[in-house]
Amino acid sequence: MTGLVIVAIFILLAVILVQIGRLTEVAAVIRGEENVAMATNNRNAVYMLIFLVVFLIYCVASAWFYKDRMLGYGPHTAASAHGGQLDSIFNTTLFFTGIVFVITHIALFWFAYKYREDKNRIAYFFPHSTFLEVIWTAIPTVVMAILVVRGLIVWNATMADVAPEEEHIEIEATGSQFLWEIRYPGADNKLGAKNFRLIKPGINPLGQNWEDTKNLDDFLVGDVFYLPVNKKVRVRITAKDVLHNFYLPHFRVKMDAVPGLPTHFIFTPTKTTEEYRQELKNYPEYQALSDPEDPESPQRWETFDYELACAELCGYGHYSMRKTLKIVSQEEYDDWFAQQQPYYMSNIRNTDNDPFKGKLLKVEAAKRARELKSEFKSAMDSDKLSTIRLKNVFFETGSSTLKDDSKYELNEVAELLKANPNVKVELGGHTDSTGDESANQVLSMQRAESVVNYLSSKGVSQSNMSSKGYGQSRPVDTNDTDEGRQNNRRTELKITAK
Ligand SMILES: [Cu+2]
After folding, report:
1. For site-directed labelling of 461, which of 204, 215, 356, 370 has its Cα 20 to 30 A away?
2. 244 CA distance to ligand 1 centroid (A)?
3. What global pTM score does this model have?
4. What distance in angstroms lies between residue 205's CA and the mean position of ligand 1's atoms?
5. How far is the CA of 180 from the centre of ligand 1 (A)?
6. Among candidates 324, 213, 208, which has minimal Cα distance to 273?
7. Which residues of 235-265 are buried (b: 16+ CB within 10 A; e: fewer)?
C-alpha cells in the first residue's frame, strides 16, 4: 500500500511539472515572446537530469529495501546442495547487469542534457577511435566469459548424472493435465518398466508393465510425498500430454516435462521441513498469522511446507498441479515408506489385468513365511494345543494333486517341523459344500494325505504326522459366496503334542 502511494505521488508530481511547463509555454506564446522553443528545450534537459537522479536513487533504494527477496538471502535460502551455487550465479549476473544498467542510464540522460539544442554548437565529426572500440569490445567479452564459464561449471555440476553404483533414491514424476503422479520404486529400489500403450485411465495410469516384477512394489503417492534429508535424489521427469515443468522452488529444481522425451534432475535436500520452518521463524513476514481473520491461527512459519508445482502454463487447471514435499530424517522417511501400498497390490493383484492372477508371488510367499514362523512360535509358546491354517496350499480342481505354488508354504512348514522334532501334528483337509458330501469327505482325506506325503518327502518324520479328512463338516465361512467357499477349502495344521 505504502509503495502504491509513493508511486502515485511521483506520478502526480510529474503531471504537475508537465502542466506547469505547458502553462509557461502558453503564457509565452500569448506574450509573443521569441525563443519559446529554446526555453522548452532547456527545461526538458533539466527534467532529464532530475529524472536521472530520482530514478537511480529509487532503483538503488528499492534494491536495498527488498534485498531479503533476492535468491539466497533472508527467508529465500536454498534447501538443496546445489542451490547455493545457482543463487550465486543469479546474483553475479545481477551484479554485472546492475553496473551496466547504472552506466547506460547515466549516459542516456546526461547526453540528453548535455547535447540539447544549442544554436551556437557545431556538430563534432568523430569517425573512429580504436581505443574506444577495444574498450567496449574487451570489457563485455571478459564479463560474458566470466558469466558463461562459471555458468557452465555450475550447470555441469548440477546436471551430472549419478554414477551407477552411487547410492541414491530414484523416483519418477509424470505430468499430465492436471496433476503430478509421483512413483516410488518400492522395496527393491528399482522402478519397473513402462509402456505408454499400456496406459488405461483409472486402471494403469502410468502404463506400467505388470509382467516386469520390478513394478509390483512400486507405489504412487497422494498429495504429500516424503524424501529423506541429505540423500541424493534422482527424479525421472516425463509427461503424458503437453509440456509441463517439474518445479521445486526451494530446492532450485526446475526441469521441463516433455511427452516422449525423458528428462531428469538430481538434487540433495539439505534442510528438513522442520529446519526450514525454524529459519523462517526469524522473519517478521513469517510471524504473521496464517489466517489473518483468525487470531488463534498458527503463524505462517508453522504452516510452511515445501511445494511441488508445475512451472509451465499447461492449461486451465495449471494452478492445481501442486503437491507438498516433506523433507524428514531417514527414520521418519523409512516409516512413511513402509506404510505405502504398492499400486499393483491394491489395484491390479488377482484382477483380470494381473498376469500373475491365481499364482503366488515371491513377495507374498516371503511375507507368508514370516507370518507362519510367528504363528508357529506363538503356538509353541502357548499352553494350549493350537491349529494353524495353511493359507497357500492349493490343489488342482477336484483332485489331490498339489499345485506348484503350494511348495513355498509347505517348505516353510517342513523346516519348522524338522527344527522341532518333538512336535506331533495332524494335517486336516476341508472342502466347501459344493458337490457330493461323501465325495468331499474322500477328497479332503486324499488332500491331507498328499500334504503329509509332500512334507515327508522334505524330510519330516512320518511318525510325527497324521492326516484326517473333514469334508465339508467344519465350514469357517459361508458356502454361499465364492470368497466364503474359498475360505472353507483349506488345509489345517493341528499341533497334537509338543
Ligand atoms: Cu503443468
Report:
1. 370
2. 4
3. 0.70
4. 17
5. 8
6. 324
7. bbbbbbeeebbbbbbbbbbebbbbeeeebbb
Going by C-alpha positions, the residue among 58, 48, 47 that lies closest to residue 20 is 47
The residues whose Cβ lies within 5 A of ligand 1, an ion, are 244, 310, 314, 321
The alpha carbon of 221 and the centre of ligand 1 are apart by a number of angstroms equal to: 18
Check whether the bond before 178 is cis (ω within 30° of 0).
yes
Look at residues 159, 181, 204 and tell me which one is the last residue of a structural domain.
Answer: 159
Domain containing 471: what range? 362-497
CA–centroid distance, residue 254 to ligand 1 (Å): 12
Tell how far the Cα of 42 is from the centroid of ligand 1, in angstroms: 55
Distance CA 436, CA 216 (A): 40
Q: 310 CA distance to ligand 1 centroid (A)? A: 5
Instruction: Assess whether 189 and 246 both reside in one domain.
Output: yes
135 in the same domain as 16: yes
The answer on 280 and 307 residing in a single domain is: yes
Number of domains comprising the chain: 3
pLDDT digits (tens, 9 = 90+) for 419-439: 888 888 888 888 888 888 888
Ligand 1 centroid from CA 170, angstroms: 21
Q: Tell me, yes or no, whether 147 and 177 share the same domain.
A: no
In a shared domain, residues 80 and 154 = yes
pLDDT tens sequence across 182-211: 999 988 888 888 888 888 888 888 888 888
